[in-house]
């Protein structure tokens, strides 16, 4: 399975939020906290569910509490894909 890219994550985040094109191509969101991006815990749970469905990577709810930025989430997902 191929790694999840930031652009792929943006698509998943947009889908989880129920919005189209919330993030512009090339917009740097890697180190912006999810709360500043407008994602609450419910939106993040939906994001994790979409990642599991699309990429086969499961992230426990308690692990999500420590993943505060898209970069941290990408590192977690891609680390599991590589394993």
TrEMBL record:
InterPro entries: ACP-like_sf, PP-bd_ACP, Ppantetheine_attach_site. Residues 3-81 form the Carrier domain. Keywords: Phosphopantetheine, Phosphoprotein. Pfam families: PP-binding. The keyword Thylakoid does not apply. It comes from the Bacteria. This is Act minimal PKS acyl carrier protein.
């Amino acid at each position: 399975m191929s790694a999840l890219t930031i652009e792929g994550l943006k698509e998943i985040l947009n889908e989880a939020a129920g919005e189209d094109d919330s993030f512009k191509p090339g917009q740097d969101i890697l180190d912006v906290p999810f709360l500043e991006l407008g994602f609450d815990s419910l939106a993040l749970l939906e994001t994790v569910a979409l990642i599991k469905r699309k990429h086969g990577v499961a992230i426990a709810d308690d692990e999500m509490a420590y993943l505060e930025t898209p970069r941290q989430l990408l590192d977690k997902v891609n680390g599991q894909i590589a394993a």
